[in-house]
Amino acid sequence: MLKAVFFDIDDTLYDTSGFARLARKAALNVMIDAGLPLASNKAYTLLRQIIKEKGSNYDKHFNVLTREVFGQEKPLLIALGMITYHNVKFALLRPFPKTPSTLINLKKKGYHLGVISNGLTIKQWEKLIRLGLHHFFDEVVTSDEAGVEKPDERIFQLALSRMGCRAGKSVMVGNKFSEDILGAVNVGMSAILVNSELTESEKEYIKKEGIEIEVISNIKDLGAIL
Ligand SMILES: [Mg+2]
């Protein structure tokens, strides 16, 4: 019977939050040099607020920022911000140091590998390709395709049926308890939480519901479990 390991992408295979923070700060510094009249920490706080309001897949965060600061959009500043953001992000983008070797070892052990990710299909594929990881995965399923986001059971069911494996033979690895872990456990998959600590209320919930999950601090620790 086919054994499968499914992965979340962001903050599971690579440090999404860290790279995004560096790229946003660099973009704002270039905009400030070109005339954005804010201190860099103020600009960063404002940008974070806009991203929170509009969502991370909205593509006009810098437009909104200039509108809020100047009362109108500033095309030059917006373009400088966008170019810097993308250049810095792509220059730095790489997997966690142990991600590739861990995936290679799981393949060697006979696991089929997949991705279950909340996000836009092309954008998530673009990340996997830029990270140099796309060849590892037999199936990549996004919320964009599934029409629902993790933790909805249907995205996990879609991934299992595409992979042709049973929930009981599958494991989900992700950094978000409420999305990756609960979603997987609810369809009967095993689950491993990585790069994240359980809160007290999550611990209580796990105990109350009798859920069995593993918690690891580095993706390389998968080798000892799987
Ligand atoms: Mg994640």
Account of the protein in words:
The protein is of the alpha/beta class. It folds into two domains: 4-15 and 95-225, Rossmann fold; 16-92, DNA polymerase, domain 1 (Orthogonal Bundle), CATH 1.10.150. Helix content is 53%, strand content 12%. It has helices at residues 16-33, 40-54, 61-70, 75-92, 99-108, 121-130, 143-146, 153-163, 177-186, 200-209, 222-225; strands at 4-7, 112-117, 139-142, 170-174, 190-194, 214-216. Helix 1 crosses helix 2 (40-54) and helix 2 (40-54) packs across helix 3 (61-70). It binds magnesium ion. Magnesium ion is lined by residues 8, 10-12, 174-176.
Strand fraction equals: 5-15%
Which regions are unreliable across 5 or more consecutive residues at pLDDT < 50? none
CATH class of the largest domain: Alpha Beta
- Rg value: 20 Å
Q: What is the CATH-assigned architecture of the largest domain?
A: 3-Layer(aba) Sandwich
Give the ligands present.
Answer: magnesium ion
Average of per-residue pLDDT values: 96
CATH homologous superfamily (4th level) name of the largest domain: HAD superfamily/HAD-like
Q: Describe the strand arrangement of the main beta sheet, using strand numbers.
A: 3-2-1-4-5-6
Provide the succession of SSEs: EHHHHHEHEHHEHEHEH
What does the largest sheet look like? 6 strands, parallel
CATH topology of the largest domain: Rossmann fold
Separation, N- and C-terminal Cα atoms: 15 Å
* Alpha-beta classification: alpha/beta
What is the overall shape? elongated
Count of structural domains: 2
